[in-house]
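G., the chain you wanted modeled:
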Amino acid sequence: MAKRFILTGLLLLNLFCIRAQTDDLMITEYVDWDPGSGWAIKVYNPTSSTINLSNYYVKVFNGSNTTASGSEQLLGLLAPGASIIISNANNSQASSDFKACADDIRTNLAGVNNDDCIAITSGNTTNFVDMVGLYGVAVKNRVNGVSNALKWQKLVRNNGNCIRYSATDGNSTNSWPSSASVSLGGWSVSPPDCLSLGNNYSPFGNTQIQNQSICSGDSILFNNQYLHQAGTYFDTLTNAGSCGQIVRLNLSLQVSPSAQRSYEICPNDSILIYQKWYTTDTLFTHRVPNLNSCDSLIDIEIRLREIQANFGWSFLGTDSSHVQFEDFSLGNVQFWRWDFGDGDSSALKEPQHLYKPGDYMIQLVVIDSNGCNHRISYPISIKDLNFPKPILPNFFSPNGDLQNDFYHLNIDRGPYNFNIVIVNRNGTPVFESTNPAFQWDGRFQGQGVPAGTYFVQIQWGNEFLKNFLNLQR
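Predicted structure as tokens:
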């Protein structure tokens, strides 16, 4: 049975920060270009899933307006941990230097200047996801001790700052301050330049690295899930209400000792393996516990040897007591044992045997190179060939008077190769049968043959009996 391990002390989640603040798009960089009205923001996907950007809009709110001066729907997909740069470099007021900066999405949205707001919304609404500046209030924000920080400056979100400023009241912890005297933290302010490509931001302050190893088939509980494959996994630790630390688990698998064992068994036999009997083809893996190391895995294959007895027979020549046996057995047969049912036997593959009349049970046993055997039995009946020779009548009158209307022999059985042929004076056969109990009504092809003399020939075993036949109407 697979072992399961639990990493204790590593699984506390800051539910407010991780699930409420890093569960949607975040703005991680901002620049207002000097001179001109050019701006750019970097939008980051902090989640573990790809985000469809077509569900989001970027909007500009100037001054205290609660109606956007412009909005643009985003397009494309943003992979987990990836970022895009959105700018208004298509705006005619943007400086040429700013237009030379790299971006992913260019808009012609209006410029911003000190007391304006750039927001990301869910849908074309005021359902804010994140923003720089304060919606509905013309405040010249102070950031990291720098006054007028939104004018001709570059802001970069600090690692560990996972707060999305998506409230609009100016007082909540996730809202930009409504007073210029309040300095906003969690951002670094520097002179304006192009936003960095890629993503250099992490919502976590630092990282703890855990290295763990488990055996193949075992599992370990980490971040509320059991892991059983090698890889790198992440979790978070609460740290005084902030975003805390990220824990990286490097999980490796130890190779379990393994072996393969193969067994062959004969039909109708069984084999005992690890206290269980097996009688058919079987594949399974047996786990052998080891006290101080990974359990050993033993791959077991049980194969049923293919050997099956079968035979047929035929009669030789004209003597039904002389039998030829034919072997139809399957498998790597090496030895044959025949019991003819009359006390005699043979070790030949396809023997012949001479019987006396009677009923017998024939048995064949076949044996392969490993000593596996299989047997089968069939009954056989040998007819008595010592029949007395019949008397051949030489007269009959098929005229419908119910007296001697049929030509026949006073017997109901004969040798297995019995045959009678009656021919006319021209040598044309007018009647033929292999049934000793035949009856001829004097017709040929549905018509009565004319009166006259006919010739009769009967095969009786190894002899031929002949006579003339006088037919009268």
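The radius of gyration is 52 Å.

Shout if anything looks off.
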